[in-house]
Amino acid sequence: MKILLHACCGPCSIEPVSGLLSAGHDITIFFSNSNIHPETEYNLRLRTLLAWAQSRAIPVVADVYDPAEWWERAGKVQKRCPGDPTHEQRCRVCYRMRLQHAAKYARDHGFDALSTTLAVSPYQFTEVIHQELVQAAQQANVTPLFIDCRPLYPDSVRDSKAFGMYRQKYCGCAYSKAEAEAQRKEIEAERTAKELQRAHSIPRAKELI
Fold this sequence. Notes:
The protein is α/β, with parallel strands linked by helices. The protein has a single domain, classed as HUPs (Rossmann fold, 3-Layer(aba) Sandwich). It is built from 7 helices and 5 strands. It has a 5-stranded parallel beta sheet with strand order 3-2-1-4-5, with helices on both faces. The N and C termini lie far apart (85 Å).
């Protein structure tokens, strides 16, 4: 089949691309990620993907970068804790926007099916991705091809490091960036506290008389 593969980033593209190529499919990668903030981060992720795809002779199409559209559709969804349904709803709208863009391109350029690399990461809402992919593809009259690659996530980490690829430290949007930075600060604070605790618990050597 002629497949348009929506890609969120380079590292998450490795395993889906390898599997689809092994199955004999004709693949074009579609980079549609207006959620990524800031633009310098967007450009870095795109360059990383382009460099890797070029080494595999895989064509890449970059969608228009339009963070204003993302904000109007997904960014305004109320931010709450990561475990809150509202957080999931914001991600759902974000997936929907990006997959709708990909589905439209697939329809307009004669692709048979649409797939995505979003289902590689275990940190995403996998079932929501599945639902939104099916809906976007069916509305565009192309075949949805959902591949749950979460079991291959360790392989994608290993292979992306072996390729020397840039690996981002947060999902993409400004909310996820702030959450990731807060988590890193919390981890660093816990590490510092443990080091101080160990330092104070070491017995002092007896003074020589």
